[in-house]
């Protein structure tokens, strides 16, 4: 009967619900209430802070008011910062040529632009190079070092790379070049022989600077140097804008100094005097409309660019030195202008347009965009970013479909045994496979190593992990089979001889089986608290503003609501589900709109669900409403086909997907049973309260089916509705 019941449905509708594991934080109402009283915040925000590890008044104050914290001088935190400043100051004074070696992702390009702007302003003779993603891969290499040497460079400054480039740095030292490495990636077994290394992974884990990305290290170096030279006054705001762009686009944790500086940067970005930032904001359609910005789930982010404003820069004195505490190097946000961007404005709007260039374009476009003061040039470069980003989106979609086909054909049956995916195919663009890896992690819930052939003998790829899996440790585990590799816990890049593919897949499976239990290989949905739909309103949304900016290590709050009814749903855009859900509370129906991004494969969703979601504002036509962004669903535990043979008419007929059915409630022993029959005589028999049913022409030959699958849930709900309507 399954074939006949669902023969009219597209194949994608036959899929199960997303394969997820839910982790719901335990509620501590007494602790939350006590903390709320101590800190004068709402109990729900208190609970969310408890979930994030904050239990004392002092911890809460430091988190909610990061400006209240006193930061240590970075000179006391980074052992090589002093020598780095001496090297740069000496090079500037003697007019020695400085060369920056950057990276082609958003972090690396914003770092490069930040140091170019600041060093040029400080009088340095400085240029830059970024390795070719397609032909050279990540990080400084011997070719770049040799070219720098031929060009008369005396000091090399790496940004967002270099910590794993032992051979290239060793060559630079042999050629009598001085080298400062600024990086944030995990530390290899052997450090390169640089003159100075600035990397937050080398400092104390308790340091507030520990979480900075590559652009954060560049920011600290540039600000410290500017202050040492007594020229910081005009540099802070443009550097802060670039720091904010790079930090969020690189998914750096929004804790420590990142939270403090990003919060300022988001307020300043709409009124940034950087032509490139303003051009990006215009082209991307981003506007700052209040603390959490503007724009709906589908309609985009529209609005003004913010008013120009002058911030207090008198905190710096002409002869100030770098032993002044770090918080004095940055202007306090101007509270008179509340317009601000949100992290998602950068993460989903500005960042991808920058990253797309490094993936499939020429990084010089972004460097020119972020270093020019000419608005005409900036708009031209921003439009190039826009066009290349659209091309990148198309490439991602095509590669994702091909990768899914490979997984379903070759690896899906052994996924639980392997606990990792290694997907390789020729003719994929290396610049976008990392994005596809993230989507495969989201779909299958396992670490993904995805790669493509550079030529017949070499393969290069990207990796993305899950919370319980350390990508960099996995790469180190396989180092004998690899060429170049690098990264951190969540992501990495690698290359290897093609002949090692089978051995590499085997070794990664071995590592994954040591690292992961079976319950780990489902996408994890971390949920903060339960809420009913009548509690979802603008007041709650405003209370959550206290937690912003949200991002890595300070995620957007996730709520869940049990047993909601899906009353409308449709596919919109490129495979998203737009829906309306409802909940009955005290005999009243509460409805709210929602979106499920890239869930077209699960359409239509069952009519009754438990849902997990984030809150999002929709400011369409100046009318603000709160909507849901679904991150998880599961079949409502009711599956409660609560019906009886006496309270409901015994028989009815109905149409479902253009087919005719009869249905009725019958007694099967002591319990009632719903039976649905099609025109071919096959019957679906569902016992009251059961999650499975019998399907077949008779009980002896019937098979057991899972009615949580959407095709069964839909027809069952249609039958119950038909029976109810004839009362």
From TrEMBL:
Residues 419-513 form the DHHA1 domain. SUPFAM superfamilies: DHH phosphoesterases. Residues 527-630 form the RecJ OB domain. Residues 97-247 form the DDH domain. The keyword Zinc does not apply. Pfam families: DHH, DHHA1, RecJ_OB. Keywords: Exonuclease, Hydrolase, Nuclease. Belongs to the RecJ family. This is Single-stranded-DNA-specific exonuclease RecJ.
